[in-house]
Write a structure and sequence with these properties.
Layout: E1 3-8, H1 10-13, H2 18-32, E2 40-45, H3 48-54, H4 58-67, H5 76-89, E3 93-94, H6 98-107, H7 113-126, E4 132-133, H8 135-141, H9 143-160, H10 162-169
Parallel strand pairs: 1-2, 3-4
């Protein structure tokens, strides 16, 4: 059985020196990826918009060319499962109509998974007692895009105060 460790792509791209990133790619390529019969597997996930940045490093380019597995966007039943299954595994019920409303919102957004993740996290955080996710809660969040908008406004109000935000709206 292989052990796995997930490395988010943001850890490669946020405030790292060129030599750190090059060394990281080199170590993965020479010390991990080429070990025969290794029980260690390192999995990194990356949005497509980070790929170009990583390709500017020879060691990462080689890894990406040889090891990458590309996933198409989730659609239909796969997207439904990505929404419902984690909730069900955590003991949450989804109210009838909620999944359809989420799928309708997601269909309006290109590259929606980060927005969807944020909205679902916000929805789950609001109902830790009943373990029932409702259409009313989802609409109160503002849907997929509204959840992030509300959060951004909250952060902005905290940092700059209400008066600045009110001026910017007009």
């Amino acid at each position: 059985m292989k052990s796995s460790y997930s490395v988010p792509s943001s850890s490669l791209t946020s405030r790292r020196s060129t030599s750190d990133i090059s060394n990281f790619g080199y170590l993965l390529r020479t010390k991990v990826a080429e070990i025969p019969d290794s029980r260690l597997a390192i999995v990194t996930t990356m949005r497509a918009d980070f790929l170009e940045y990583c390709l500017s490093y020879e060691s990462l380019t080689e890894l990406i060319q040889n090891q990458a597995v590309y996933m198409p966007p989730l659609l239909g039943a796969e997207l439904e499962e990505a929404i419902a299954k984690p909730a069900n595994l955590q003991g949450y019920d989804l109210e009838t109509g909620l999944l359809g409303a989420i799928l309708d919102d997601v269909g309006k957004e290109k590259d929606c998974l980060p927005l969807l993740q944020f909205a679902l996290t916000e929805l789950w955080e609001r109902d830790k007692q009943k373990h029932r996710l409702t259409l009313e809660q989802y609409r109160a969040l503002g849907g997929v895009t509204g959840a992030l908008n509300r959060h951004a406004e909250k952060v902005y109000r905290y940092k700059y105060g209400s008066s600045v935000l009110d001026v910017l709206k007009y």
